[in-house]
């Protein structure tokens, strides 16, 4: 039977790519029966015999790493299929090899992947490893191949048809501008806060071009430097008088603290209201906002209520948000169907008034949230994760 042939052939492959292909190929077997009857008459099926559209449907789900380093080297037909723009609709920097449960063949979900917490140091290591293998495997001169060149070369493979994009936390401005010029069909976008802090005008321009945007994730981070950037903004002038606890001094990036604190006036250029205003004007299908791990200020809450009152999904997990501000959100965003406020600081998980106001929300969770009014404690907890 063709099923045994195809699955058996794939089972002999030891690489993760083939394990993924084995999990994904079943939905297309009926197409193989009708279009390639000769497959059932051979002793050893060949990947070359699979129709191109079936290959594309399989490869578009295997992830960036496999598309770059594995699929093109299986055979010529897989190489051609790996270049199809449909395989590059989902640009997740950096995807990992643990997004699929191989025993249950359960695929990762776009929302879960694009809303993943971003650790800049981990991202950097994975990115460098991927780029190093790419340069070596494709015999590229690495002396003239930069981060920007690598990111833009991958984005260019989508030919403007990318629908999901998660940029690395260290994405250069030049690469961000290129994304804004090419990727106008995005439905899901994940941006590290570093880009919001340092390239807010480019981000606003990018979002203004994404007419189909439905999901925006302002990716969480446990990187000390980035957290201090947003923390200094949230605390304003009072941040100058905060005695940074000793627990932070032994962490990565601690030596940069003196260089970050004086730049509060520059950091203040990050304005969530300006970004949400672009969404309100240009993104009519927008429904999902993720601000996990953020220090959510009063002005941020008012921006959400005034500009996105019809938002359906709001993810605030591990954020710092004052109790009164959360109540304002609940009163202003009455169409919420999901609110994830787990492990937050600023309100208590057992708050009765919050529970009553959130009773109309189909999926509301605030387990692990604590009524702690000290943002510094939130910062210390964030760093220690």
From TrEMBL:
InterPro entries: F-box-like_dom_sf, F-box_dom, LRR_dom_sf
Residue span(s) of domain F-box: 47-89
Pfam short name (any one): F-box
Domain of life per record: Eukaryota
PANTHER family noted in UniProt: F-BOX AND LEUCINE-RICH REPEAT PROTEIN 6 (PTHR38926:SF5), F-BOX DOMAIN CONTAINING PROTEIN, EXPRESSED (PTHR38926)
Protein name: Uncharacterized protein LOC110764484
Name of the gene: LOC110764484
């Amino acid at each position: 039977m063709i099923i045994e042939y195809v699955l058996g052939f794939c089972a002999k492959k030891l690489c993760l790519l083939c394990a993924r292909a084995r999990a994904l190929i079943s939905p297309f077997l009926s197409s193989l029966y009708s279009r390639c009857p000769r497959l059932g008459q051979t002793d050893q099926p060949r990947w070359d015999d699979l129709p191109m559209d079936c290959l594309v449907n399989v490869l578009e789900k295997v992830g960036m790493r496999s598309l770059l380093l594995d699929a093109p080297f299986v055979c010529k037909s897989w190489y051609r299929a790996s270049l199809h723009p449909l395989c590059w609709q989902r640009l997740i920097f950096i995807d990992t090899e643990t997004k699929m449960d191989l025993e249950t063949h359960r695929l990762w979900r776009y929302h879960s992947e694009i809303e993943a917490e971003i650790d800049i140091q981990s991202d950097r290591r994975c990115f460098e490893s991927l780029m190093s293998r790419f340069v070596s495997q494709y015999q590229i001169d690495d002396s003239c191949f930069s981060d920007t060149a690598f990111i833009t070369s991958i984005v260019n493979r989508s030919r403007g048809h990318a629908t999901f994009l998660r940029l690395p936390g260290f994405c250069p401005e030049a690469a961000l501008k290129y994304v804004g010029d090419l990727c106008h069909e995005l439905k899901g976008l994940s941006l590290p806060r570093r880009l919001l802090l340092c390239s807010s005008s480019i981000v606003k321009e990018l979002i203004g071009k994404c007419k189909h945007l439905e999901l925006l994730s302002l990716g969480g981070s446990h990187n000390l430097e980035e957290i201090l950037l947003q923390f200094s903004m949230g605390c304003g002038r009072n941040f100058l008088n905060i005695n940074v606890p000793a627990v932070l001094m032994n962490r990565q990036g601690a030596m940069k603290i003196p260089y970050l604190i004086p730049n509060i006036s520059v950091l203040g250029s990050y304005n969530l209201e300006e970004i949400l205003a672009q969404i309100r004007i240009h993104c009519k299908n927008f429904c999902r906002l993720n601000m996990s791990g953020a220090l959510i200020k009063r002005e941020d809450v008012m921006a959400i209520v005034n500009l996105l009152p019809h938002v359906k999904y709001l993810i605030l997990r591990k954020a710092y948000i004052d109790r009164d501000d959360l109540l304002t959100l609940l009163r202003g965003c009455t169409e919420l169907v999901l609110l994830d406020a787990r492990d937050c600081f600023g309100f208590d998980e057992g708050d009765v008034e919050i529970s009553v106001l959130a009773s109309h929300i189909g999926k509301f969770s605030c387990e692990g949230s604590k009524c702690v009014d000290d943002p510094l404690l939130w910062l210390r907890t964030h760093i220690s994760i």
